Amino acid sequence: MNEYPRSYASSPPGRDLSNNSLTSLPVGVFLHLSRLRILDLRHNLLSSIANATFLGLANLRTFDLSQQKLRNVTRHSFLGLRTLLNL
Known about the structure:
- This protein is about 0% helix and about 15% strand.
- The protein is mostly beta strands and about 90 residues long.
- It has one domain (about 1-85): Ribonuclease Inhibitor (Leucine-rich repeat, LRR (right-handed beta-alpha superhelix), Alpha-Beta Horseshoe), CATH 3.80.10.
- The protein has a three-stranded parallel beta sheet with strand order 1-2-4, with no helix packed on it. A two-stranded parallel ribbon has the order 3-5.
- The mean pLDDT is about 90.
């Protein structure tokens, strides 16, 4: 899996997408996941995060983005993550 599937629109409180070789996260892919509280994206191949990629994750509290190849992250990449407690 190289890209986060848009078919994951309805979600349980947590989503584990670790170790999937994800290379990109399309802007808007999380717009309909407002109930998501935990997102695990560790051990993927993400190199950049566009502005507002995580918009829609209004209730996200725990987010694991470790073990990436990130090179490009802006101050607006995490826009909308107001309830985030653990990164």
